[in-house]
Amino acid sequence: MHTSELVQLCLFIGLLALLTKPLGIYLTQVLDANGKTLLDGLIRPVENLTYSLMGVDRDKEQDWQGYTLAMLLFSLVGVIFTYLILRLQHLLPLNPQALPGLSAHLAFNTAVSFATNTNWQSYAGESTLSYFSQMVGLTVHNFTSAGTGIAIAAALVRGIARASANTLGNFWVDVVRVTYYVLLPLSFVFAIFLLSQGVVQNFKPYDTASLVESFQSQVPKIDEKGDPILDANRRGLLEVKTISEQSIVQGPIASQVAIKMVGTNGGGFVNTNAAHPFENPTPLSNFLQMLSIFAIGSALTYYLGRATGNQAHGWSVWSAMMLLFLAGVLLCWWAEARGNPTHQLLGIAPGDGNMEGKEVRFGIFNSSLFATITTAASCGAVNAMHDSFTALGGMVPLFMMQLGEVVIGGVGAGLYGMLVFVVLAVFIAGLMVGRTPEYLGKKIQAYDVKMAMLSLLVLCMSILGFTAWAVASQWGLAGLNNNGPHGFSEILYAFTSCTANNGSAFAGLTANPSDGDSHYNATLGVAMLIGRFLMIIPIMGLAGSLVKKKIAPPSPGTFPVQGPTFTILLIGIVLLVGALNFLPALALGPVVEHFLNLQGLLF
Amino acid sequence: MKALFCELRGALVSTAILAVVTCGIYPVAVWGVGQVAFKDKANGSLITDANGTLRGSSLLGQGFSSDKYFVPRPSSAGTGYDAAGSSGSNLGPTSKKLVNGTVKPTAIASEKPGEPLQPGPEVVEFDGLKLRILSYCEQNGLPYQLLRAGQPVDPKLFKDAQGAYDPVKLINAFNDEVSLTVRAGVPIPADAVTGSASGLDPHISPANARIQAARVAKVRGLAVENVQACVVENTDQPSLRIFGEPGVNVLRLNLALDALR
Predict the structure, then answer these.
(1) Which residues pair with A553 in a beta bridge?
(2) CB-count burial class (<10 Å; 0-12, 13-18, 19+) for A203
(3) What are the chain A neighbours of B73 within 8 Å (beta carbons)?
(4) Which domain holds residue A238?
(5) What is the pLDDT of residues A281-298, one digit of tens each?
(6) Do A274 and A189 sit in the same domain of this protein?
(7) 3-state helix, strand, coil in chain A (%, to 5)
(8) Looking at the partner chain, which of A247, A342, A349 has a beta carbon nearest the beta carbon of B188?
(9) Across-strand partners of B108?
C-alpha cells in the first residue's frame, strides 16, 4: 500500500463528494416534470415531440399500479425487441463479420440481461454479436434500463416526500426526461473524452495486422463443416499452424462504453470488458470510468435530501454507503496486494501482489478499486478478472452484491434498495425504544414492513436457491473452470451477480457448454428477472402506501434519520438483515478457500 | 383494458423513438466527432510500417518469444494475443492448473483414409506458473532450482537429446508428484509469469523490462544503456503522474529496437 495509491483513493472519494451536490440539483430539476434545466432550449422541443408521438400527457400522473404497469410493459417490449434483433442478426445490416443469429436460450438470456440493467454476458461480444446487435439491440437498454431504475427511485422518493396524495409521477415522463437530459448528454461528453484516450469508434470490419514475429501453434483441425475432427475418445486432431496475423476488433465501442458506465450497465463491447485496451486504454480513462459509475447513484442521495426537505438525511445515507464501500475497498486492496502465498513460494516477487488476471497499467490498486466499485454499484464492468482474485479479494465483490447493491448501487436501483433498509432501520429502532416507528413523519406500519422484507427475501431465495440447485446438478458442475471451493464460488457468484442485476462474473464459468445445454442461460435469465421485477413490485407497493400517509410534525421522541447514530444503525441493518443470510454460503466458498490457500493446497 | 392499450402504445412508440435517438443519432454523432478530432485513435491507434503494411495497434499486445525481442506477458486470448478473442485465464488462487499446467491428448489421422483416428502425442494445453518461471529464468539467465521434497533434482531428467526441456514431460511430472517444484533464485516480476485480464496487455512492468534488457542487448550486440534508453522511451508513465502504474509497451519497444539498425 503506497502513498500514491492512498492519494488516488482520496481523490476518488473527494471528487465524488464534490460531484454529488451539483449533479443532485440537476437531477432534482430533471425529475420534476416541469422543472427548468440548462438544456431546455436544446432538448425541450424534442421532448415535447416525443410525448405527442407517444400520446402522453406530461401533467397526468399515475398511481403506483399505473406506474408499475407502464414500467413492466416498457421492459417487456424492450426484451422482445432485443430478442428478435439477436435471433435475426444475420439478416440485419452492420454485420461485417457475417456472424450468425443467436440460439434461443442465449438470445433470451442476453435480452433479459440488458433489459434488467444486469448486463451479464453469456456471450463473447467480439465473436458473437454484430455491430447492429450491439449498437441497437443492447445499447437501447443501456439507456432505458438505467432510465427505468432512476424513474422507480424517483417514484419511491415522491412516495416518501408527498403527503396524503395518491400519485407518484408519470413513468413515461420520468424515463424520457432522464434519458434526454441526463444520460444522453453525460454519455456524449464522456464518449468524446474516451475517444481522446484511445477508445475506438468506427464501423469498419476487423483489421488484420501482420505480426512482427509470427509463431507456431497447435490448433484443432477443422472439417469442411467447420467442426473440429474428434476421435472416439473426443481427442482432437491437431495441426501445426503458423500464425502470422493478428485480427484486431473494431466497432462503435466508445459510445457504448460511455453509457455502460454512466448508466451502471456494465455490458462490454468485447469479452473482457473494461480490461480490454480498446475499452479502457489508460489509467486516466479508468479513473473517470470508475467515477462515472458512481456519479448518478451518489447524486441521487442528494436528490433524496432535496425532495424530502431534509438534506442531512441524504448525506447520512451517502455516508453509510461510503463507509461500507471504504471497508470493501480496503479489504480487497489488502488481499490483492498481499498476493498468493502458493505462487510466491515458486519465486514470484511478494511485493508485486496477485497479478494473475490484472493489467499492468492498472496494477493491484486500481484493479481492486474498480472491482469494489463495479460490484458496489451494480455496474458489472470489470477491468480485471475477478475469478483470479485471491480468495478474500474475490469475496469482496461477491459480498458487495449480496448486500443488495445498496452501496451507491445501480442508478436508481441503489437508492430504492437502500430506502428499503432505511424503512427497516426506523422500524427496528422504533421497536427498540417501544414507539410507533416513523420515517420523516410517516408511520411505518405492518404493510410497509412486509413489502420491504418481501423485496429482500426474494433476493435471498433466488441466490441461494438457484446456487443450491446448480451445485447439486450435472449441468451446474459441467460449466466450472475451477475445482474445489473456488468452483462453488463461481456458481454462487453467477447467481448472486444475476439476481443482484450486477453482471460481473467469475468468468471461468461457462454458461454455453459445447453440448448446447441451456440450463445456465435459462436459470440465470430467470434470476435476473426475479432480482429486478420481484424487487421493484413490492417497492412500488411500499411507495403507493407511503404516499397516502399523513405527515406528523416531529416531536421530541421522533427518531432522527440524520447524523452518526442513524448512519451507524443503517450500516448495522444492511449488514445484519442483508448479509447475514449469505455467511454460511461464503464460508463454504471464499472463506474456506482462503485457509486452504494458506496451507498451499491446490485443486 | 383501454388503459392497458394506451400504455402499450407508449411502450412501443417510446422504444422506437429512444432506439432512433440513443442507437442512431448518439453513436453516429460520437463517430463523427471521433473521425474528425481523433481520427487515429478512433480507428484503433494502428501502427503501419514504411511499406504501409499494418503491423498492429499500439494499444494491443502481440506475442514475441525469441531472445532478440522483449517477451510480453502470457496470454489466454485465443492462440495467444488474438485481438478478436480477448480472454483471461480465469483460474483461481487454488487452481492446480494455474500452477502445474495441463497437457492434452491429441489424435493423428491414420494412414488409410476412412479409418479411425490414432492416439497422437500429448501437447501442452496450458503451461502453468512452474513452467513459465523455469522458462523465464532459462531465457534470461537467472538462477533457479528444480526441487523434489526440498532436494535439488537433476534437470537433465526432463530434457531431450538436444538439451532442451520437454514441456510435456515437465507438466506431467508436476501433476504426478506433489513435491516436485521450481524455485527461482531471484524474485520474478509477477507480471512476467501471470496472464493479464484481457490477454492483450500491451505492457510489461519496468522491473520485468530491466531483467530482459540485458539479454536483448547481448543478442543484438547493443550496449545495455542503449536498450535501456529505448525501454524508457517506450514506457507509458502513470496518467497525470498520479493514476495507475507505469508500463513498458512491448510492441512499440520491439519495433523501435528493430528500427535501430
Answers:
(1) none
(2) middle
(3) 360
(4) 207-248
(5) 999 999 999 999 999 999
(6) yes
(7) 65, 5, 30
(8) A349
(9) B118
